[in-house]
């Protein structure tokens, strides 16, 4: 009887183990939450941008970087190119927002930084699952090279100014990448 009981337990254990796989599920690509941004996130970004503009007025920073000025629109890119573009924009933005700042500004940028970091990670997951070997188009490749050159030659202050002052363009690009269809 004990032998039958042990055999039954082993068989049940093995079948339950097969019924509940232990492999981690593949992370899916879902950017739908970025189609319409939550109002409190937009307000936090707006507050940070306004506070940064006040700081800029008090400084004598002169920057020539025109990273976010493009002769083409994001709608002209394929969906994988859009995701790659926004991931690069968010990478720059989160990098500069992580730099040391005055205590008041550091506090103001915490919520936008958390949101933008999550969006960047979601985009990276999408690239890894949907288009791991995607090669950027000529337009995007040229812009990515321009971005890389700016990271190497511009001051961190100029990169910060460019990223923060164009945050709503980046958010619009994020929305466009999330739509996965034609956008304006």
From TrEMBL:
What is any Pfam family matched here? IL28A
Q: Please tell me whether the keyword Signal is annotated for this protein.
A: yes
Q: InterPro entries in the record, alphabetically?
A: IFN-lambda_sf, INF_lambda
Where does the UniProt annotation locate this protein?
Secreted
Q: Does the keyword Signal apply?
A: yes
Its signal peptide is 1-19
Q: Which GO terms describe its biological process?
A: cell surface receptor signaling pathway via JAK-STAT; defense response to virus; innate immune response; positive regulation of immune response
Q: Keyword set for this entry? A: Antiviral defense, Cytokine, Secreted, Signal
Q: GO molecular function terms here?
A: cytokine activity
GO terms for cellular component: extracellular space
Indicate the family of this protein. Belongs to the lambda interferon family.
Write down the PANTHER family for this protein, in alphabetical order. INTERFERON LAMBDA-2-RELATED (PTHR31943:SF1), INTERLEUKIN-28 AND 29 (PTHR31943)
Q: What is this protein called?
A: IFNL3 protein
Origin organism of this chain?
Answer: Crotophaga sulcirostris
């Amino acid at each position: 009887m004990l032998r039958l009981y042990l055999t039954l337990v082993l068989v049940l254990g093995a079948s339950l183990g097969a019924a509940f796989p232990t492999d981690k599920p593949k992370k899916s690509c879902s950017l739908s939450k970025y189609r319409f941004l939550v109002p409190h996130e937009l307000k936090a970004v707006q507050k940070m941008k306004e506070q940064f503009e006040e700081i800029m007025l008090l400084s004598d920073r002169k920057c020539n970087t025109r990273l976010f000025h493009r002769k083409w629109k994001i709608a002209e890119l394929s969906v994988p190119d859009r995701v790659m573009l926004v991931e690069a924009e968010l990478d720059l933005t989160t990098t500069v927002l992580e730099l040391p700042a005055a205590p008041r500004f550091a506090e103001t940028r915490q919520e936008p930084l958390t949101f933008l970091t999550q969006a960047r990670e979601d985009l990276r997951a999408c690239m890894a699952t949907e288009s791991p070997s995607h090669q950027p188009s000529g337009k995007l490749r040229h812009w990515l090279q321009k971005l890389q050159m700016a990271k190497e030659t511009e001051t961190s202050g100029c990169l910060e100014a460019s990223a923060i002052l164009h945050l709503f363009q980046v958010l619009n690009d994020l929305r466009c990448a999330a739509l996965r269809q034609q956008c304006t």
